[in-house]
Amino acid sequence: MRKSAQVLTRGFTLVELLVVIAIIAILAAVVVLIVNPLEVTRRARDATRFADVTNVQQAINVTVQEATGSGAEVLCAGGSAPCVGRSTDSGSQSSAGTGWVKVDLTVQNAVAVPNLPNDPQNTSGATGMHYTYCSDGNAWEINTRLESTRYTVDEDRDGGDGGDDPDIYETGSDPGLNLISPSGGSCTY
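and the corresponding structure tokens:
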């Protein structure tokens, strides 16, 4: 009697493995396109910007309400109106009126602001990402540029904020404030 050799194959063929790897690669590409990690990162930075600007806005409002001096003394502490500050300036995180916000936030007791926030990217220039504070001594404004497509096309966040620049998020007592400072700065972003 002759025994025939039986070959038992256990495992996957190369073709089967390549097909599975190709399917996984296609699914991964679809997930990356749907989730878009760069856009998620931009949205996270924009959320930080909104939180920073809102917190600073509340601190300025409290300081102005508690102040006994004139508007120019409060809104442009240590200087004269009009005044401008940017988060990219040297010493910009000081909350004593010498940082990018020219209001002395240390004089009020209701809200503690030990340091002013900087933009998550904090780059200078007209196309940079930073915070700008402006005041004419009677009104004030904080400007920042948003980067995610969710907010740059949202009329409630950019173009519908009451400001004069549809590409910049503007907030404050006068979001449309337009001034040129004698020290060379302007309220333009």
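(Above: one complete record from the training split.) The chain has a mean pLDDT of 83.
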